[in-house]
Design a protein that fits this description.
The protein contains six helices and no strands. The protein has 128 residues and is an all-alpha fold. The relative contact order is 0.18.
Length: 128
Amino acid sequence: MNIAVKGALFNALLFPGWGEIFLKKYTRGLCIITATMAGILSILWSVIQTTIAILKVSPFKKGTVTFSSIVQLAIESVKALDFYYLFLLLFLIISLWIISIIDAYILGKVEMAKSSTPFDQQSVSPQV
């Protein structure tokens, strides 16, 4: 497996930005990871804020906290979210992930081109 495919697979399978870090493009990789984490944390913050607002209106009674009541609270929190905001953040995260995969693949191709020498290219081409 060549370096371009490995870089793209790291992005696709692990997390956006890992392919760039694998290819030793640390600044670019950290920027992608930071942007992705900011989007994910923004979604989590929205869910937490909505959950707190729901709990202020109707708090749990003492001794009634069960797993099913927590799941129900989470479902109510997600239903109460602004779906346009949520959709926009998810769209941006997925777009960044796809761009990161393509970027890592292109960076890998460039690294492969840099590492190949004219001698390597001659040995691969057929003799006439």
